[in-house]
Design a protein that fits this description.
The structure is a single chain. With 390 residues, the protein is an all-beta fold. It folds into two domains: 103 residues, Immunoglobulin-like (Sandwich), CATH 2.60.40; 283 residues, Kelch-type beta propeller (Neuraminidase), CATH 2.120.10. Helices cover 0% and strands 47% of the residues. The strands form eight sheets. A four-stranded antiparallel sheet has the order 4-3-6-7, with no helix packed on it. Strands 10-9-8-31 form a four-stranded antiparallel sheet, with no helix packed on it. Strand 3 and strand 4 form a beta hairpin. The radius of gyration is 24 Å and the shape is elongated. 50% of the residues are buried.
Length: 390
């Protein structure tokens, strides 16, 4: 085994430890955590550490199991050996692990909606959601976003509370801070890149046009970011790594087809993007790094039932939305989130059904599975791999 400096690591068969046993790897994002059982025969002196190395020479050292090896390439399969170390040298190598392939962690979390329940799914598969934990109280109209590791749940029905979760674990929310104001009714959703989350809009004695932000990795109160072109509620939002787009909503003149955007890195007011195909309120939006998709709407007075059709936009440009396809039914008060290539829609007003799309193509939704409980209209969703993180 190379010592990484052009030489080879010495071994002493009489005095070095026996090799580790039970070696197994667990994939992470560009990393693998390698677990093992230390040898019972430590040789002529105590074990001082362990060396883990992949079959292409990338390795890491540690004093106990597991050892996390970073700097790997997602989508590439690796095997790993472990060496135990004492003052006399290195053991012989352990048996190799089975092949382990690092990959981006793609978990979606569905939050609240006439409930304090949170559920999660693996976006890359299909199946029913699993209980994640609970919000502080039952909340509708939350505005959610997150980084690859942390999910943030902002405001909600008649509150300025901001909460957060660690997406890779399960458990109840933890206090993050306070929004700048109380949001009495549905805000315009939340969106983020890897560092900053934006949320705003809503209704509280009048239509709200202000948008605020937080830094996701820290905790603290919201800070003013800028204004929408008009006060409105019941919209949604989506993002790339540089831009967030606020979608539709109801303003003083009725339901809206407005699309407008902010540059996430710099505070300021919204800029016109274009128009949706139809007016929408209580919509749900998701995105890859390049494309945003919008679905669902309440029914404007005197109009047809909830919308089933989906619109899409190319986030880096501006222009009007185009037809993407249809959900299985018209829906309203749903939520949406995405992974690297796949988007999930929860059909809020209909039942507890989740449906998915492939974002880069166009077409109708496909059944994914169900939330754990029914009656979850006006909830929200977030993920560890949405378009703002790519």
């Amino acid at each position: 085994m190379s010592n990484g400096k052009g030489g080879f690591i010495g071994q002493d068969g009489l005095n070095a430890p026996d090799p580790a046993t039970g070696v197994a790897g667990t994939a992470g994002d560009a990393s693998v955590s390698v677990a093992f059982t230390a040898p019972s025969d430590v040789g002529a002196s105590a074990i001082t550490g362990f060396r883990v190395q992949s079959d292409d020479g990338i390795g890491a050292s540690g004093t106990s199991s597991p050892v996390n090896v970073t700097g790997l390439t997602n989508g590439t399969s690796y095997t790993f050996n472990v060496w135990a170390i004492n003052a006399f040298g290195y053991s012989s190598p352990s048996d190799a692990t089975s092949g382990v392939t690092p990959a981006v962690f793609q978990r979606g979390v569905f939050v609240g909606g006439n409930s304090n329940v949170m559920d999660y799914v693996d976006i890359t598969t299909t199946g029913n959601a699993t209980d994640f934990g609970d919000l502080v109280t039952s909340d509708r109209f939350n505005m959610c976003f997150g980084s690859a590791t942390r999910g943030v749940i902002a405001a909600g029905d008649n509150t300025n509370r901001i909460q957060y979760i660690t997406i890779a674990t399960t458990g109840n929310t933890t206090d993050f801070g306070d929004a700048t104001r109380t949001y009495a009714s549905s805000g315009d959703g939340g969106s983020s890149n890897s560092t900053r989350g934006l949320f705003g809009g809503g209704y509280s004695g009048g239509f709200i046009n202000n948008v605020e932000y937080v830094t996701i990795a820290s905790v603290g109160n919201g800070t003013d970011f800028g204004d929408l072109s008009s006060g409105r509620y019941g919209g949604s939002a989506l993002a790339s790594s540089s831009r967030t787009v606020f979608v539709g909503g109801e303003a003083s003149g009725g339901f809206s087809n407005i699309l407008e955007y902010f540059t996430i890195a710099s505070a300021g007011n919204a800029t016109d993007f274009g128009d949706l195909i139809q007016v929408r309120r209580s919509s749900a939006s998701l995105s890859s790094s390049t494309r945003g998709v919008v679905g669902g709407s309440s029914s404007p007075p005197g109009s047809a039932p909830h919308l089933a059709n989906l619109d899409y936009i190319t986030i880096a440009s501006t222009g009007n939305a185009l037809d993407f396809g249809d959900a299985s039914v018209g829906f309203s008060g749903g939520s949406a989130t995405s992974g690297l290539t796949r988007g999930l829609f929860f059909l809020g007003n209909t039942d507890y059904t989740i449906e998915y799309i492939t974002i880069a193509s166009t077409g109708n939704t496909t059944d994914f599975g169900d939330l754990s409980t029914d009656g979850r209209s006006q909830g929200a969703a977030l993920s560890s791999a949405h378009g703002g993180l790519q």
